[in-house]
Amino acid sequence: QLSCLVKVVTLHGVPKDLDSYPKDFLLFLSPSDYAATGSCRQYFANIGKANLDVLQKESSQRKQLLLEALECLKISSTQVSEENAEILGRLVCDLGGEYVRSSGGSLLKRLSRCDSFLPEQEEAIRTVISSGNTTFGPPVAWSAFTLNELSGLIPVFDHSIFQKIPK
């Protein structure tokens, strides 16, 4: 439905007030469509707030969005800064395990909002958490507040992580 709506709305050109449309609407536009009304950074900041589940996980469209976002934000390595992670928003859920490992704890809080993970992402999350090299510190130093902050990641934890968390 959204795809059809985009076709109707853009029939006579891209509207100048795209920011007033629902964020999910933007998933069916390209950064070049949005360029007339704002920057690609602004486009991906809006995309990061959209319901990405409108697009099937692992779909070519979602993969393309992520590639375009990485290019727009000039992320050439697998390390994502806190600022860029904020712009990516929900798109961080599509980053591969190598990004999770390289970015360390800067992605953990955002990843905890993801609905599901691929096995390689789960392994990377466990590696980063086990290292203790995050803003949350090692699991032995965690509090109830920390667990609340990372609650979306709890299903990914393995026995070795649970063992270290204080009662």
pLDDT averaged residue by residue? 87
Major beta sheet, specifics? none
Please give the domain count.
Answer: 2
Radius of gyration, in angstroms, nearest whole number: 18 Å
Percent of sequence in beta strands: under 5%
The parts where pLDDT drops under 50 for at least 5 residues are none
Structural class label: mainly alpha
Helices and strands, in N-to-C order?
Answer: HHHHHHHHHHH
Report the strand count: 0
Main location: membrane
Family: Belongs to the mesothelin family.
Protein name: MSLN protein
GO biological process, one term: cell-matrix adhesion
Folded structure, characterized:
Pfam families: Mesothelin. Keywords: Cell adhesion, Glycoprotein, Membrane, Signal. Belongs to the mesothelin family. With 167 residues, the protein is an all-alpha fold. It folds into two domains: 1-74, no CATH class; 100-166, no CATH class. Helix content is 48%, strand content 0%. It has helices spanning 2-9, 23-26, 31-34, 40-47, 60-72, 82-88, 97-103, 108-111, 119-131, 144-149, 159-164. Helix 7 runs parallel beside helix 9. The longest helix has 13 residues, at 60-72. The radius of gyration is 18 Å and the shape is elongated. It starts with a helix and ends with a helix.
